[in-house]
Amino acid sequence: MLTKEELPECPVATTVRLIGNKWKLLIIRNLIYEEKQRFSDFLKTIPAISKKVLTDNLRALESDGLINREIFAEVPPRVEYSLTELGKTLNSVFNAMIDWGTYYKDNI
How far apart, in whole angstroms, are the C-alpha atoms of residue 79 and residue 96? Predict the structure, then answer.
């Protein structure tokens, strides 16, 4: 997880740093609507994402404290991803994005 000293001073820049690429946004979107997802679920619901890019973004989100990765001791192993309590606070950000995106589409 990043330290406060490593983050930009600007709160908008901090948010962009943490969730500012399209893949992270779509991963978080999935976890807001479906509490838990497996790796294969992300591949099915996020078109064009490669396994490597998905892995890199999941690791970054986990490292930043926004998602949990839970490994189940089964054969084959099962891994599920979910939002942390901190990650769940992004729900209001996504609701604002939905509202603005809808407004934009209605007014162009």
Answer: 30
* Contact indicator for 28, 66 with CB cutoff of 8 Å: yes
pLDDT tens digit string along 61-102? 999 999 999 999 999 889 999 999 999 999 999 999 999 999
The neighbouring-strand residues paired with 81 are 37, 69
Predicted pLDDT of residue 6: 82
Report how far apart, in Å, the C-alpha atoms of 26 and of each of 5, 12, 75, 76, 107 are.
Answer: 28, 19, 29, 27, 24
3-state helix, strand, coil in the chain (%, to 5): 60, 15, 25
C-alpha to C-alpha distance for 71 and 56, rounded to whole angstroms: 17
d(CA 81, CA 60): 13
List, for residues 16-44, the tens digit of each pLDDT value: 989 989 999 999 999 999 999 999 999 99
